[in-house]
Design goal:
108 residues; mainly alpha; Chromosomal Replication Initiator Protein Dnaa, Chain: A; 6 helices
Amino acid sequence: MSVRAVCRICAQITTEMVMLASHRIQMRRDRRRTFCHIRQIAMYVCHVALQIPLYEIGGAFGRDGTTVGHACHVVEDRRDDPAFDEFVAAVERTVNSVFRSNGVFGNE
């Protein structure tokens, strides 16, 4: 499976989990910001959980590798909030269960 496909699936999983966890009213008001945060979380999970290099994630998302690095720093800083940390951990567990159980990525 290509890195682009893996990143696309990670982004979709992240989007679905955000939709389940967030309030629709807030989503409508801050739509652009919400999608930016979703993309940042997806990039972070691709890098941390699946150990995909930043430049490959950048290519898959149509962004530069430095943008992916910035996204990872932003998400890492936000993990000081216990609720956000638990949410990101849930996304990581979900992504790991999808890709590791299907043999897409080995059990490193």
